[in-house]
Write a sequence for this structure.
Protein backbone atom coordinates (compact mmCIF):
# COMPACT_ATOMS: atom_id res chain seq x y z
CA UNK A 1 0.00 0.00 0.00
CA UNK A 2 2.60 2.56 1.08
CA UNK A 3 5.30 0.83 -1.01
CA UNK A 4 7.22 -0.60 1.98
CA UNK A 5 6.35 -3.72 3.97
CA UNK A 6 7.85 -2.43 7.24
CA UNK A 7 5.82 0.77 7.14
CA UNK A 8 2.65 -1.16 6.27
CA UNK A 9 3.32 -3.51 9.21
CA UNK A 10 3.81 -0.55 11.52
CA UNK A 11 0.50 0.97 10.40
CA UNK A 12 -1.28 -2.37 10.93
CA UNK A 13 0.05 -2.72 14.50
CA UNK A 14 -0.64 0.92 15.40
CA UNK A 15 -4.21 0.52 14.13
CA UNK A 16 -4.78 -2.15 16.80
CA UNK A 17 -4.15 0.29 19.67
CA UNK A 18 -7.28 1.45 21.50
CA UNK A 19 -8.39 4.84 20.21
CA UNK A 20 -6.60 4.45 16.85
CA UNK A 21 -7.99 3.08 13.61
CA UNK A 22 -6.42 2.57 10.15
CA UNK A 23 -6.73 6.25 9.20
CA UNK A 24 -5.31 7.70 12.42
CA UNK A 25 -2.59 5.00 12.42
CA UNK A 26 -1.48 6.16 8.96
CA UNK A 27 -1.47 9.77 10.17
CA UNK A 28 0.53 8.83 13.28
CA UNK A 29 3.11 6.86 11.26
CA UNK A 30 3.61 9.70 8.75
CA UNK A 31 4.02 12.09 11.69
CA UNK A 32 6.55 9.73 13.31
CA UNK A 33 8.63 9.34 10.14
CA UNK A 34 8.72 13.12 9.67
CA UNK A 35 9.74 13.76 13.30
CA UNK A 36 12.37 11.07 13.39
CA UNK A 37 14.78 12.63 15.92
CA UNK A 38 12.04 14.15 18.07
CA UNK A 39 9.56 11.26 18.18
CA UNK A 40 10.35 8.12 16.17
CA UNK A 41 13.75 7.28 17.67
CA UNK A 42 12.77 8.10 21.31
CA UNK A 43 9.54 6.11 20.91
CA UNK A 44 11.37 3.10 19.43
CA UNK A 45 14.00 3.16 22.19
CA UNK A 46 11.50 3.59 25.05
CA UNK A 47 9.26 0.85 23.65
CA UNK A 48 12.24 -1.53 23.49
CA UNK A 49 13.07 -0.78 27.14
CA UNK A 50 9.47 -1.18 28.27
CA UNK A 51 9.00 -4.38 26.23
CA UNK A 52 12.08 -5.83 27.94
CA UNK A 53 11.34 -4.71 31.50
CA UNK A 54 7.61 -4.02 32.06
CA UNK A 55 5.96 -6.41 34.51
CA UNK A 56 3.32 -6.57 37.20
CA UNK A 57 4.51 -5.75 40.71
CA UNK A 58 4.53 -9.06 42.63
CA UNK A 59 3.23 -7.26 45.71
CA UNK A 60 0.48 -4.87 44.62
CA UNK A 61 -0.21 -5.63 40.93
CA UNK A 62 0.85 -2.19 39.64
CA UNK A 63 2.73 -2.15 36.34
CA UNK A 64 6.36 -1.12 36.61
CA UNK A 65 9.82 -2.05 35.42
CA UNK A 66 10.98 -4.04 38.44
CA UNK A 67 9.67 -7.09 40.34
CA UNK A 68 8.39 -4.90 43.17
CA UNK A 69 7.21 -1.42 42.16
CA UNK A 70 8.60 1.89 43.50
CA UNK A 71 5.51 2.52 45.63
CA UNK A 72 5.86 -0.85 47.39
CA UNK A 73 9.60 -0.40 48.01
CA UNK A 74 9.35 3.22 49.25
CA UNK A 75 9.43 3.45 53.06
CA UNK A 76 7.63 6.81 52.89
CA UNK A 77 4.57 4.99 51.55
CA UNK A 78 4.42 2.59 54.51
CA UNK A 79 1.76 4.66 56.27
CA UNK A 80 -0.37 1.69 57.29
CA UNK A 81 -3.01 2.72 54.74
CA UNK A 82 -3.84 0.40 51.86
CA UNK A 83 -5.97 1.58 48.95
CA UNK A 84 -7.77 -1.23 47.09
CA UNK A 85 -8.48 -0.47 43.40
CA UNK A 86 -9.93 -2.52 40.55
CA UNK A 87 -7.36 -1.80 37.89
CA UNK A 88 -3.91 -0.32 37.26
CA UNK A 89 -5.56 2.64 35.49
CA UNK A 90 -7.45 3.39 38.74
CA UNK A 91 -4.17 3.29 40.67
CA UNK A 92 -2.66 5.79 38.20
CA UNK A 93 -5.74 8.03 38.55
CA UNK A 94 -5.36 8.00 42.37
CA UNK A 95 -1.65 8.82 42.00
CA UNK A 96 -2.41 11.76 39.69
CA UNK A 97 -4.62 13.28 42.37
CA UNK A 98 -1.63 13.17 44.74
CA UNK A 99 -4.05 12.89 47.65
CA UNK A 100 -3.09 9.41 48.85
CA UNK A 101 0.25 8.75 50.52
CA UNK A 102 -0.07 5.03 51.34
CA UNK A 103 0.24 1.87 49.29
CA UNK A 104 -2.09 0.21 46.80
CA UNK A 105 -3.54 -3.19 46.08
CA UNK A 106 -4.79 -3.86 42.53
CA UNK A 107 -7.56 -6.49 42.39
CA UNK A 108 -7.41 -6.93 38.62
CA UNK A 109 -11.18 -6.77 38.13
CA UNK A 110 -14.42 -7.31 40.02
CA UNK A 111 -16.13 -10.41 41.35
CA UNK A 112 -18.46 -11.91 38.77
CA UNK A 113 -20.32 -15.18 39.16
CA UNK A 114 -21.31 -15.10 35.48
CA UNK A 115 -17.72 -14.80 34.24
CA UNK A 116 -16.41 -17.23 36.88
CA UNK A 117 -14.33 -14.58 38.66
CA UNK A 118 -14.05 -15.56 42.33
CA UNK A 119 -11.98 -14.15 45.21
CA UNK A 120 -8.92 -16.25 44.24
CA UNK A 121 -8.81 -14.74 40.74
CA UNK A 122 -8.83 -11.24 42.25
CA UNK A 123 -5.78 -11.48 44.53
CA UNK A 124 -8.03 -11.14 47.60
CA UNK A 125 -6.02 -13.84 49.50
CA UNK A 126 -2.90 -11.75 48.78
CA UNK A 127 -4.74 -8.72 50.20
CA UNK A 128 -5.47 -10.48 53.49
CA UNK A 129 -1.83 -11.59 53.68
CA UNK A 130 -0.59 -8.04 53.18
CA UNK A 131 -2.75 -6.70 56.03
CA UNK A 132 -0.69 -8.85 58.41
CA UNK A 133 2.76 -8.61 56.84
CA UNK A 134 2.67 -4.85 56.20
CA UNK A 135 0.95 -3.79 59.47
CA UNK A 136 -2.01 -2.26 57.66
CA UNK A 137 -4.32 -0.26 59.95
CA UNK A 138 -6.82 1.09 57.39
CA UNK A 139 -8.08 -0.35 54.10
CA UNK A 140 -9.64 2.21 51.73
CA UNK A 141 -11.97 0.55 49.23
CA UNK A 142 -11.59 2.79 46.15
CA UNK A 143 -13.59 0.58 43.80
CA UNK A 144 -15.64 2.03 40.97
CA UNK A 145 -19.15 3.20 41.89
CA UNK A 146 -20.70 0.55 39.62
CA UNK A 147 -22.83 -2.44 40.65
CA UNK A 148 -19.90 -4.88 40.17
CA UNK A 149 -17.47 -2.59 41.97
CA UNK A 150 -19.78 -2.14 44.95
CA UNK A 151 -20.54 -5.88 45.15
CA UNK A 152 -16.81 -6.57 45.32
CA UNK A 153 -16.36 -3.84 47.95
CA UNK A 154 -19.08 -5.43 50.11
CA UNK A 155 -17.45 -8.86 49.80
CA UNK A 156 -14.06 -7.51 50.88
CA UNK A 157 -15.63 -5.50 53.70
CA UNK A 158 -17.40 -8.64 55.01
CA UNK A 159 -14.10 -10.52 55.08
CA UNK A 160 -11.96 -7.82 56.67
CA UNK A 161 -14.24 -5.90 59.04
CA UNK A 162 -13.07 -7.71 62.16
CA UNK A 163 -9.39 -7.24 61.36
CA UNK A 164 -8.86 -3.68 60.15
CA UNK A 165 -10.48 -0.24 59.86
CA UNK A 166 -12.38 0.01 56.58
CA UNK A 167 -13.44 3.06 54.58
CA UNK A 168 -14.74 3.89 51.11
CA UNK A 169 -14.44 7.00 48.95
CA UNK A 170 -17.11 9.64 49.66
CA UNK A 171 -19.92 9.94 47.14
CA UNK A 172 -21.39 13.29 46.17
CA UNK A 173 -21.28 16.21 43.75
CA UNK A 174 -18.00 16.25 41.73
CA UNK A 175 -15.87 19.42 41.95
CA UNK A 176 -17.09 21.82 39.25
CA UNK A 177 -20.24 19.74 38.76
CA UNK A 178 -23.59 21.37 37.97
CA UNK A 179 -26.70 19.91 39.63
CA UNK A 180 -28.69 20.19 36.39
CA UNK A 181 -26.32 17.71 34.68
CA UNK A 182 -26.04 15.21 37.56
CA UNK A 183 -27.99 11.97 37.66
CA UNK A 184 -30.60 11.34 40.37
CA UNK A 185 -28.47 8.72 42.16
CA UNK A 186 -25.58 11.14 42.69
CA UNK A 187 -27.89 13.90 43.95
CA UNK A 188 -29.58 11.47 46.39
CA UNK A 189 -26.19 10.28 47.66
CA UNK A 190 -24.95 13.85 48.08
CA UNK A 191 -28.12 14.85 49.95
CA UNK A 192 -27.99 11.83 52.27
CA UNK A 193 -24.33 12.51 53.07
CA UNK A 194 -24.88 16.26 53.59
CA UNK A 195 -22.61 18.07 56.01
CA UNK A 196 -23.39 20.89 58.43
CA UNK A 197 -21.60 24.11 57.45
CA UNK B 1 3.05 9.03 38.20
CA UNK B 2 2.75 5.36 37.28
CA UNK B 3 5.69 4.45 39.53
CA UNK B 4 8.16 3.79 36.68
CA UNK B 5 10.09 6.41 34.72
CA UNK B 6 10.23 4.37 31.49
CA UNK B 7 6.48 3.85 31.42
CA UNK B 8 5.87 7.54 32.16
CA UNK B 9 8.26 8.48 29.33
CA UNK B 10 6.43 6.14 26.97
CA UNK B 11 3.08 7.72 27.88
CA UNK B 12 4.53 11.22 27.35
CA UNK B 13 5.84 10.33 23.87
CA UNK B 14 2.66 8.50 22.83
CA UNK B 15 0.61 11.54 23.93
CA UNK B 16 2.43 13.61 21.28
CA UNK B 17 1.11 11.50 18.40
CA UNK B 18 -1.68 13.09 16.36
CA UNK B 19 -5.06 11.80 17.52
CA UNK B 20 -3.81 10.78 20.98
CA UNK B 21 -3.82 12.80 24.19
CA UNK B 22 -2.60 11.99 27.71
CA UNK B 23 -5.67 9.89 28.55
CA UNK B 24 -5.68 7.78 25.38
CA UNK B 25 -1.87 7.45 25.58
CA UNK B 26 -2.22 5.93 29.07
CA UNK B 27 -4.91 3.58 27.78
CA UNK B 28 -2.75 2.56 24.81
CA UNK B 29 0.31 1.92 27.02
CA UNK B 30 -1.68 -0.23 29.47
CA UNK B 31 -3.10 -2.15 26.51
CA UNK B 32 0.42 -2.62 25.09
CA UNK B 33 1.87 -3.89 28.38
CA UNK B 34 -0.99 -6.36 28.75
CA UNK B 35 -0.63 -7.65 25.17
CA UNK B 36 3.14 -7.94 25.29
CA UNK B 37 3.63 -10.84 22.85
CA UNK B 38 0.81 -9.79 20.53
CA UNK B 39 1.41 -6.04 20.36
CA UNK B 40 4.23 -4.57 22.47
CA UNK B 41 7.14 -6.66 21.17
CA UNK B 42 6.08 -6.54 17.48
CA UNK B 43 5.51 -2.76 17.75
CA UNK B 44 8.90 -2.19 19.40
CA UNK B 45 10.68 -4.31 16.76
CA UNK B 46 8.91 -2.75 13.78
CA UNK B 47 9.50 0.76 15.12
CA UNK B 48 13.23 0.02 15.49
CA UNK B 49 13.37 -1.18 11.88
CA UNK B 50 11.42 1.79 10.56
CA UNK B 51 13.45 4.26 12.67
CA UNK B 52 16.63 2.81 11.16
CA UNK B 53 15.48 2.55 7.54
CA UNK B 54 12.60 4.95 6.77
CA UNK B 55 13.51 7.68 4.30
CA UNK B 56 12.07 9.76 1.48
CA UNK B 57 12.40 8.25 -1.99
CA UNK B 58 15.05 10.33 -3.78
CA UNK B 59 13.03 10.10 -7.00
CA UNK B 60 9.36 10.70 -6.11
CA UNK B 61 9.30 11.78 -2.44
CA UNK B 62 7.26 8.78 -1.20
CA UNK B 63 8.27 7.39 2.19
CA UNK B 64 9.84 3.93 2.08
CA UNK B 65 12.70 1.93 3.48
CA UNK B 66 15.13 2.25 0.56
CA UNK B 67 16.72 5.17 -1.30
CA UNK B 68 14.38 4.68 -4.26
CA UNK B 69 10.91 3.36 -3.42
CA UNK B 70 9.35 0.16 -4.79
CA UNK B 71 6.99 2.07 -7.10
CA UNK B 72 9.89 3.93 -8.72
CA UNK B 73 11.99 0.78 -9.17
CA UNK B 74 9.13 -1.39 -10.52
CA UNK B 75 9.23 -1.66 -14.32
CA UNK B 76 5.50 -2.44 -14.36
CA UNK B 77 4.83 1.08 -13.12
CA UNK B 78 6.77 2.68 -16.01
CA UNK B 79 3.57 3.37 -17.97
CA UNK B 80 4.55 6.87 -19.01
CA UNK B 81 1.91 8.30 -16.64
CA UNK B 82 2.99 10.47 -13.73
CA UNK B 83 0.54 11.41 -10.98
CA UNK B 84 1.43 14.64 -9.13
CA UNK B 85 0.19 14.76 -5.50
CA UNK B 86 0.68 17.24 -2.67
CA UNK B 87 1.60 14.86 0.09
CA UNK B 88 2.65 11.27 0.86
CA UNK B 89 -0.77 10.67 2.46
CA UNK B 90 -2.38 11.59 -0.91
CA UNK B 91 -0.09 9.09 -2.66
CA UNK B 92 -1.18 6.38 -0.19
CA UNK B 93 -4.84 7.31 -0.78
CA UNK B 94 -4.36 6.94 -4.56
CA UNK B 95 -2.63 3.57 -4.03
CA UNK B 96 -5.49 2.31 -1.84
CA UNK B 97 -7.92 2.99 -4.70
CA UNK B 98 -5.77 0.70 -6.88
CA UNK B 99 -6.94 2.68 -9.92
CA UNK B 100 -3.59 4.17 -10.96
CA UNK B 101 -0.86 2.01 -12.47
CA UNK B 102 1.83 4.61 -13.17
CA UNK B 103 4.32 6.46 -10.99
CA UNK B 104 3.95 9.36 -8.58
CA UNK B 105 5.58 12.67 -7.83
CA UNK B 106 5.10 14.14 -4.35
CA UNK B 107 5.33 17.95 -4.28
CA UNK B 108 5.55 18.18 -0.48
CA UNK B 109 3.00 20.98 -0.19
CA UNK B 110 1.43 23.76 -2.22
CA UNK B 111 2.76 27.05 -3.57
CA UNK B 112 2.26 29.83 -1.04
CA UNK B 113 3.59 33.37 -1.43
CA UNK B 114 2.67 34.14 2.19
CA UNK B 115 4.70 31.21 3.61
CA UNK B 116 7.53 31.74 1.12
CA UNK B 117 6.94 28.41 -0.64
CA UNK B 118 8.10 28.78 -4.25
CA UNK B 119 8.51 26.19 -7.05
CA UNK B 120 12.02 25.26 -5.87
CA UNK B 121 10.73 24.25 -2.42
CA UNK B 122 8.12 21.97 -4.04
CA UNK B 123 10.41 19.74 -6.15
CA UNK B 124 8.89 21.20 -9.32
CA UNK B 125 12.34 21.35 -11.02
CA UNK B 126 12.70 17.64 -10.21
CA UNK B 127 9.28 17.06 -11.84
CA UNK B 128 10.36 18.71 -15.10
CA UNK B 129 13.56 16.63 -15.07
CA UNK B 130 11.61 13.39 -14.61
CA UNK B 131 9.36 14.13 -17.61
CA UNK B 132 12.47 13.90 -19.80
CA UNK B 133 14.40 11.13 -18.06
CA UNK B 134 11.42 8.78 -17.54
CA UNK B 135 9.72 9.36 -20.95
CA UNK B 136 6.53 10.67 -19.35
CA UNK B 137 3.65 11.11 -21.81
CA UNK B 138 0.88 12.20 -19.43
CA UNK B 139 0.96 14.16 -16.17
CA UNK B 140 -2.12 13.75 -13.97
CA UNK B 141 -2.50 16.66 -11.54
CA UNK B 142 -4.12 14.98 -8.51
CA UNK B 143 -3.88 17.98 -6.21
CA UNK B 144 -6.46 18.67 -3.54
CA UNK B 145 -9.56 20.58 -4.68
CA UNK B 146 -8.64 23.52 -2.41
CA UNK B 147 -7.67 27.06 -3.45
CA UNK B 148 -3.95 26.39 -2.74
CA UNK B 149 -4.03 23.02 -4.47
CA UNK B 150 -5.70 24.42 -7.60
CA UNK B 151 -3.31 27.42 -7.71
CA UNK B 152 -0.38 25.01 -7.66
CA UNK B 153 -2.02 22.86 -10.34
CA UNK B 154 -2.42 25.92 -12.60
CA UNK B 155 1.21 26.90 -12.10
CA UNK B 156 2.42 23.40 -13.03
CA UNK B 157 0.04 23.25 -16.01
CA UNK B 158 1.40 26.60 -17.30
CA UNK B 159 4.96 25.28 -17.11
CA UNK B 160 4.37 21.88 -18.68
CA UNK B 161 1.55 22.34 -21.23
CA UNK B 162 3.88 22.56 -24.23
CA UNK B 163 5.84 19.44 -23.25
CA UNK B 164 3.37 16.78 -22.16
CA UNK B 165 -0.32 15.80 -22.06
CA UNK B 166 -1.92 17.18 -18.89
CA UNK B 167 -5.04 16.04 -17.04
CA UNK B 168 -6.71 16.57 -13.68
CA UNK B 169 -9.03 14.39 -11.60
CA UNK B 170 -12.72 14.70 -12.55
CA UNK B 171 -14.90 16.72 -10.19
CA UNK B 172 -18.47 15.69 -9.42
CA UNK B 173 -20.76 13.76 -7.11
CA UNK B 174 -18.82 11.28 -4.89
CA UNK B 175 -19.85 7.60 -5.10
CA UNK B 176 -22.61 7.05 -2.56
CA UNK B 177 -23.11 10.81 -2.21
CA UNK B 178 -26.57 12.32 -1.70
CA UNK B 179 -27.35 15.59 -3.48
CA UNK B 180 -29.05 17.00 -0.39
CA UNK B 181 -25.78 16.83 1.55
CA UNK B 182 -23.48 18.17 -1.21
CA UNK B 183 -22.27 21.76 -1.31
CA UNK B 184 -23.28 24.10 -4.14
CA UNK B 185 -19.81 24.13 -5.69
CA UNK B 186 -19.75 20.35 -6.14
CA UNK B 187 -23.26 20.29 -7.62
CA UNK B 188 -22.34 23.10 -10.07
CA UNK B 189 -19.16 21.26 -11.09
CA UNK B 190 -21.06 17.98 -11.56
CA UNK B 191 -23.75 19.71 -13.66
CA UNK B 192 -21.21 21.51 -15.85
CA UNK B 193 -19.31 18.26 -16.44
CA UNK B 194 -22.51 16.26 -17.14
CA UNK B 195 -22.23 13.31 -19.49
CA UNK B 196 -24.74 12.05 -22.07
CA UNK B 197 -26.11 8.63 -21.09
Amino acid sequence: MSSSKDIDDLIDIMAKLPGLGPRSARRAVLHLVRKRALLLTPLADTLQTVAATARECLNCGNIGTSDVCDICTSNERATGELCVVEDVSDLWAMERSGAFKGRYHVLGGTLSALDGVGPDELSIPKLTDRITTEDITEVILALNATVDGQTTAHYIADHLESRVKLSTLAQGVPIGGELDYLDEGTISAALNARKTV
Observations:
- Residues 36-53 of chain B form the longest helix (18 residues).
- Chain B has two domains: 5-53, 65-167.
